[in-house]
Amino acid sequence: MNRLKALFISGFMTLLSITLFFSLWQLLQTNNFVWFGSLLAALVPLAFFIRLFVSPLARTGSLWWLPVAGILGAILALTSTMVMMLSLFVGTVMPLIYLFWYSTFEARDSSTLATGKTLTPFNLIDIDGHTWTSRDLSQQPALWLFYRGNWCPFCMAQIREIAASYRELSARGVKIYLISPQPEENTYTLAKQFDVPMTFLTDLNNEAARRLGILAENGLPTGLQVLGYDSDVPMPTVFITDANGRLIYSDLTSNYRLRPEPEDFMKALDDAGLTQT
Question: Is the pTM of this model over 0.90?
């Protein structure tokens, strides 16, 4: 299933780009207004994705308006069955598949990261190449974020939110661990963007994600492998442990477009008695 999703998202982006430029070319060559329909149908979802990469979001709403572009495009192309069908497929059918199939995860096993459990042992590597055990890292309260990689705009937005909340988390004595299987040079590049002492760690071969039951095999969009990313990625996951390595909060989102709010972390810490000092 993940392999199909990886092919879908890469194919969707490619199809949007091809439709946009082909429709624009046809519009300029023929002056036939029907091509404005397919141009609009491709432009709106493509603009949404570009917006994500230019200014990442940690979460989105229902995005009900996204498939509407295809319907509007089809209306504009009523005099051409071919362009009308193209508009509906690119601007409505594909966005609906993205929203209700691609964006969601299958049922996730929450037992390993259930609140109250002791964190399962695993190893991680820091940007200096040193190996750390989860036991070593959980000697004080800690927030752990497993993110997919620099290529994921939702992950980048979530990291920025956590960085912005660093002082409040630090005042509660909480360490921040940001974990990904991506190449170490990518992690190093990302770490340099933040002037706060968060700890960036590498999950070599996704061993930690596998032990925690949060691994999405073949979850990387098709084609990104050429940039050095592993085909397997963690499902976006956040959890908090206390000074004894016991889980006091976990978020196993069922939709990669919906990440927890920083306020959720603070409430969990307050409920556990980890207030600001």
Answer: yes
